Amino acid sequence: MTVITSVSDMREKARQTVPRMFFDYVESGSWTEDTLRANIADLSNIKFRQRVAIDISKRSTQMKMLDQVLPMPVALAPTGLAGMQTADGEIHAARAAEKFGVPFTLSTMSVCSIEEVRSRTSSPFWFQLYVMKDRAFIYDLIERAKRANCSALMITLDLQVMGQRHRDVKNGLSVPPKISLKNIIDLVNRPKWCFKMLKTKNRKFGNIVGHVKGIKDMSSLAEWTSKQFDPSLSWEDVKELRRRWPGKLILKGIMDKDDAKAALDIGVDALVVSNHGGRQLDGTSSTISALPGVLDVTKGKCETWVDGGIRTGQDILRLIALGAQGTLIGRAFLYGLGAEGEVGVTNVLQILQKELDMTMGLCGATNLSSVDESILL
């Protein structure tokens, strides 16, 4: 039995539990995966100052994100197909986040629907929106998010065209998945995952199926989805979405100063410095490299968060020290979800908080809200 002491341990357990096509969906970046690797490497290259003989007996990892005091500045990022890491995956992740006290973000491309997740949770969650050509469907999604009492809308802006992820192509990941001898053998070797999946009715894109005219099966869904990402998306479109959503608004996918300025002009509560986890534009900079330029524009005007490459509590501390006011984790919590379901997500959050707290102490810091670059070499 593997003793889980880190997110890396959880990743290995997920690799053994989840069918390869769905595990690789989480793991993969676009093209050569240079940007995916840079997100991780550039963070780990930032070194801490070790301090001693400082009273660190009273430490707090608490910090606010969107006026909510959290046990640590972490939210669960929107991730498509989380419900294929384990049966009813979005529900399990949302419940783990709720119990731990951090926000959960439901993806447009989730397996479980907004309504299903709402019925299985008590606290409001965030909803992430992809802007598709079918504006009537998008506007209806916003209304559904309002009815579900979602406390924030997160608009992802960096998916106007789909980046190619070579592993997904080779594994035959599609809607519906391509059936091959290799995939059948892989599923046979993961009976626990298969048994759970057979017991649930949630095996489609729950936010779409039954809500779009003409979609009757998985094949028609695939054809519709492939044509829906909108290369004509403009800031005028984002302004219209801002008008339709009166609550907290988060824009995700900001890597450039000019885009940060445009976001501020429409009225935004938070930005996420994000390159989609290295899954879109390969060859762009890591998110930690882009953070200073965005902060030059946004500091004091809206909250600025970061995702990409976060695998440890130390990574969270590095980002906060460099000026981020929050972080989002994707792959880290998905490893826990695939490995152990709701319990695995909780374990990942506990691991990250423990690492964050311990590193703060060894750097002589006691209050996360006052951490700055002085703790770094």
Structural notes for this entry:
Strand 9 (303-306), helix 14 (313-321) and strand 10 (326-329) form a beta-alpha-beta unit. The longest helix has 32 residues, at 331-362. The mean pLDDT is 94. The chain has 377 residues and is an alpha/beta fold. Strands 3-10-9-8-7-6-5-4 form an 8-stranded parallel sheet. The radius of gyration is 20 Å and the shape is globular. It has a single domain, classed as Aldolase class I (TIM Barrel, Alpha-Beta Barrel). The protein is built from 15 helices and 10 strands. The two termini are 39 Å apart. Helix 1 (7-17) runs antiparallel to helix 15 (331-362).
Q: How many discrete domains?
A: 1
Examine the coordinates and then state which fold CATH places here, giving the name of the CATH topology.
Answer: TIM Barrel
Shape estimate: globular
**Spatial strand sequence of the major β-sheet:** 3-10-9-8-7-6-5-4
> In the CATH hierarchy, what is the architecture at level 2?
Alpha-Beta Barrel
Count of DSSP H/I helices: 15
Order of helices and strands: HHHEEEHEHEHEHHHHHEHEHEHEH
Name given to the CATH homologous superfamily? Aldolase class I
Find the structural class using helix and strand composition.
alpha/beta
Helical residues, percent: 40-55%
Residue ranges: pLDDT <50 for 5 or more in a row?
A: none
Number of strands: 10
Largest sheet composition: 8 strands, parallel
Would you state the CATH class?
Alpha Beta
**Residue-averaged pLDDT, rounded?**
94
Strand residue content: 5-15%
Distance between the termini: 39 Å
Radius of gyration: 20 Å
